Amino acid sequence: MKNRLFPLGHAAQRAGAALFLALAALLTGPPAQAQQFGINDIVQAEILPGWQAADGSRMAALRLSLNDGWYTYWRIPGDAGLPPRFNWSASQNIQSVEPIWPAPEVYEQYGLRSIIYREELILPLRIQPINPDRPMTVRGDLSIGVCRETCIPADLEVSASLRGAGQADERISGSLALRPQAAENAGLRRTTCRMEPVARGTDLTLRATLPRVGPDEFVVMELPNSGYWVSNIRTWREGGDLLAQARVSDPSRGPVGVSRSALAFSILSQGRVVESTGCVGG
Fold it and tell me: Domain spanning 181-281: which CATH class is it, in words?
């Protein structure tokens, strides 16, 4: 089975997890203190069975329900957070599981910017069966972070049998309506990026010519499968151009080489995400 996980390299995942655990220690005290919380009392996970598409795939969803005031993280957690990781390898008659992340919220606390979902996440899952004529059993091991005044790593399990045609589910359809859109369809005309070497890394400045996506725009840059740690520093506007700056570093403290064609970026606004890949020198 093809397993879809968080797209950044393991080094970046470890760095994000370390920041999350440092924040958890700051907010909760010793690890034993966090153990007084029962994870199942804070967050519950289930599979919404959804429906079978015309091509034989299944549109289902992972539903995370959190207690009042609690939140969990987008696929990229931000400055401090735990990247969500999903393992579907115990599933049966399933070739791949592709999460379709709806628009999140950008949230600032203690001077750190996090990218979150509050109290509920309906995460659509496009599931490709091995044999579309046979039932599927989806089983997932989930590792996520949940926060309120405290921050706790949570390990959860979900399972469901997916049979027949299923039926439409407004909860899944509502989340699909918030899926990322291609920046080119939002009016993107040109993307340039400039690299400036700094101690132990590179400063990367992105300039995208496109209409305003919405209020409080925030750009997240990625270098998938590179293993680099990308810290998104700031986003601002200059007329019709949206600019963003990030620090790219190698956790092993080696030299940093950035491929412009591999650069991926997402523009987050309230209830909207647009995304694109690649830039030219400028």
Answer: mainly beta
147, 116, 138: which is closest to 218 by C-alpha? Answer: 116
Cα–Cα distances (Å) from 34 to 49, 80, 201, 242, in that order, read 33, 18, 35, 41
Query: Shortest CA distance to 205 belongs to which of 148, 260, 136?
Result: 260
Round to whole Å and give the CA distance between 219 and 234. Answer: 8
- Residue 178 Cα distances to 97, 101, 123, 213, angstroms: 19, 8, 10, 14
Residue 247, C-beta contacts closer than 8 angstroms, at least 6 positions apart: 198, 201, 202, 203, 204, 230, 231, 233
Task: Give the sign of the dihedral formed by CA 248, CA 197, CA 209, CA 233.
Answer: positive
Q: What is the pLDDT of residues 45-75, one digit of tens each?
A: 999 999 999 999 999 999 999 999 999 999 9
Tokens standing for residue 265: 């970026």
- pTM to 2 decimals? 0.86
From the candidate CATH numbers 2.60.120.620, 3.30.70.240, 2.60.40.1250, 2.60.40.10, the one assigned to the domain spanning 10-176: 2.60.40.1250
- The confidence band for 233, taking pLDDT boundaries of 50, 70 and 90, is confident
List, in sequence order, every residue forming a beta bridge with 64; answer none if it has no partner.
45, 121
If one counts every other C-beta atom within 10 angstroms of the C-beta of residue 250, the result is 17
**Residues ≥6 apart with Cβ < 8 Å to 71:** 107, 116, 117, 118, 119, 146, 147, 148
Q: Which two tokens stand for residue 93?
A: 């008659």
